[in-house]
Amino acid sequence: MFKSYEMMQTDIKHNVQGGEGSPKFRHLFTPEELGNRGELLAVITLEPGESVGVHPHTSNGEAYFILEGGATMTEDDETRILGVGDAEFCADGHTHSIRNHTGSVTRFLAVTVPNR
């Protein structure tokens, strides 16, 4: 399946998981287009100071891959600075958050997959 940029849905979500600002979600494919093998496949844009707040994963896992910019990531009680090409995976039973601590845009790929 091919999908042009113009066909992708973009949502602006406010205070995601208690975070700051209004991140933009560009959905590459919907769960239905993924055959329900994935719950989220999106590029998320964080402007400076924006964040996705701390949230748990209880029936799925989520991977973040930094495409542009940088971010402060927290997984459970560990915090790290991630840059382009870095990734994080939050497995079932864990928590994570992401914040754009830089002065420029941060974009990352978010993939949420259900437990099987």
Question: What would the keywords be for this entry?
Answer:
116 residues, mainly beta, six-stranded antiparallel beta sheet, globular
Q: What would you say this structure looks like, in words?
A:
With 116 residues, the chain is an all-beta fold. It has strands at residues 9-12, 24-27, 40-46, 51-57, 60-68, 70-75, 78-83, 87-90, 94-99, 106-114. The strands form 2 sheets. A 6-stranded antiparallel β-sheet has the order 1-2-3-10-5-8, with no helix packed on it. The mean pLDDT is 97.
What is the number of helical segments per DSSP (H or I, 4+ residues)?
Answer: 0
Which stretches are poorly predicted, pLDDT < 50 over at least 5 residues?
none
Structural class: mainly beta
The tally of strands reads 10
If you compute it from the alpha carbons, what radius of gyration comes out, rounded to the nearest whole angstrom?
14 Å
- Would you tell me the overall average pLDDT? 97
**Could you state the order of secondary-structure elements as H and E?**
EEEEEEEEEE
Shape: globular
Report strand %. over 45%
Helix proportion range: under 10%
Largest sheet: 6 strands, antiparallel
Oligomer: single chain
Strand order of the largest sheet: 1-2-3-10-5-8
* Cα distance spanning the termini: 24 Å
